[in-house]
Amino acid sequence: MIASAFLLVASYLVVLLLLAHPLGKALAGMVRDRPLLPALEDILWRVGGVDKKSMGWLHYLLAILLFNALGLLLLMVILMTQQALPLNPQQLPNLSWHLALNTAVSFVTNTNWQSYAGETTLSNLSQMVCLTVQNFLSAATGIAVAFALIRGFASKSLATLGNAWRDLARITLFVLLPLSLIIALLLVSQGVVQTLSASVDLQTLEGAKQTLALGPVASQEAIKMLGTNGGGFFNVNSAHPFENPTAISNFIEMLAIFLIPAALCFTFGEVVSDRRQGHALLWSMTIMFVAAVAVVMWAELRGNPHFLTLGADSAINMEGKETRFGILNSSLFAVITTAASCGAVNAMHDSFTALGGMIPMWLMQLGEVVFGGVGAGLYGMLLFVVLAVFIAGLMIGRTPEYLGKKIDVREMKLTALAILVTPMLVLLGSALAMMTDAGRAGMANPGTHGFSEVLYAVSSAANNNGSAFAGLSANTPFWNLLLAFCMLVGRFGIIIPVMAIAGSLAAKRIQPVSSGTLPTHGPLFVCLLIGTVLLVGALTFIPALALGPVAEHLQLISR
């Protein structure tokens, strides 16, 4: 089993890096504002009325906020009127205002939290126009913000960060659309459904009648994974055989989740003209990722020791997992989807062991910087890089600087603000839920596991992941509004200070390397960066985790 686990993780990382490297170089051209198809782009800019001028950080930020605000408004209107709109063969009713708000915020913020069963709640029009389209646009938003921050580090005392409208259009048309088309065709070849038919009626082997929901699944599945969105067409997400039927489709989906986040590390190294910097970020992410996979696989293979005392043949924990994937693939998928801000699942995380479920939760709480979401993972990790450089400067008496840019008080205040946004949301949101009757009413389980379900839900929303421990009934006004607030602030409460940091850095001159410059590309800095990420996570969330999964694990082994 150890050999199988090693081969699975190693083969995954090898294929991932082979695919990510050329994509990263291609993305570097976009960051440098090089047109891919000049003639086509000129037509698009003229038709769209896009000004070719580069924007300052505030102008760029306002464009991003306006773009997403309009998307949020459109989604709410469609979801609250879907019954009267076309492509609704099942005549599904409109969504309530609080569920429509939660869903619209969820997909605009790249969270894709779902307080409903997709196949029985949303029409084909809502699935395609609301969810699938927003999967592209929310992913493009994250990548565009990452582009702006990379330009801030690479800029030689320029006050601008590029043009938001050009970035969003290029990312959507030349990156996300073609890659999604390729992935969708690969998934269709494995049996993933792609049709506008509503459902099919059949007779089971027992003679009962069953209705199977159908729809445009492969197209949504492709961008859901590639854009680290996560919202599934079906309620059980990628555990459903119509979304993820084979081991090959499972491998493709796992690759798609990390493809752009890994590629952006290579992009960063190319644009700042020091590939070692990108490699250092990639090594830091990979080391934490492999460690997390090892712990989850160990916990699920060790399983529940009480199974043996009850006469079972094995203690391994297969509860909530598909037999076509097994322990190893389910564990790997769980770590990938929570290390990134994807949230898609091929197994039920609520059925993992206490420690096996804690690691995905903690990966979200770390800010999802272990590869992370498209764009969001890179700019989240760069915030920790700035913090690590500042800590190192304090320890050794050097002026904190990164890539020749001095890190001043302004950047540190903004970095601290961005890093503290999600811990504040998670801890205060969980406390509010546990203190109120409306919050506790959604809990299906008492005790430590019930608290873990609440903590997981708020962590997932605040960190824009979207996965859940399934025992929480969240489709109530209280939970829909609480999680919508966490998703909205967790997304844009970080983007705003990140853009301000990018603008501040862009205006600074690059200082030449001197004997006092701290190397930020070697093993020592990789260890410092990993330590900074883990230290912030440990100091912030260990007390809450001790009340949930840690206490649950101690209860299990003490019986």
Main β-sheet, in a few words?
A: 2 strands, antiparallel
| Portion in helices | 55-70%
Cα distance spanning the termini: 28 Å
Overall pLDDT: 91
Return residue spans where pLDDT drops below 50 for at least 5 consecutive residues. none
Secondary structure: number of strands: 4
Give the radius of gyration.
Answer: 23 Å
Order of strands across the widest beta sheet?
1-2
| Helix segment tally | 19
Measured by DSSP, the beta-strand proportion falls in under 5%
Globular, elongated, flat, extended or rod-shaped: what is the shape? globular
SSE pattern, N- to C-terminal:
HHHHHHHEEHHHHHHHEEHHHHH
Instruction: Report the structural category.
Output: mainly alpha
Structure description:
The structure is a single chain. Helix content is 65%, strand content 3%. It has 559 residues and is an all-alpha fold. It has a two-stranded antiparallel ribbon. Strands 3-4 form a two-stranded antiparallel ribbon. α15 (409-435) packs antiparallel against α17 (447-462).
How are the SSEs ordered, and which strands pair?
Layout: H1 2-31, H2 38-48, H3 57-79, H4 97-108, H5 118-121, H6 124-154, H7 164-189, E1 199-203, E2 209-213, H8 217-226, H9 247-271, H10 275-302, H11 306-309, H12 326-339, H13 354-365, H14 376-396, E3 401-402, E4 405-406, H15 409-435, H16 437-440, H17 447-462, H18 477-506, H19 523-558
Antiparallel strand pairs: 1-2, 3-4
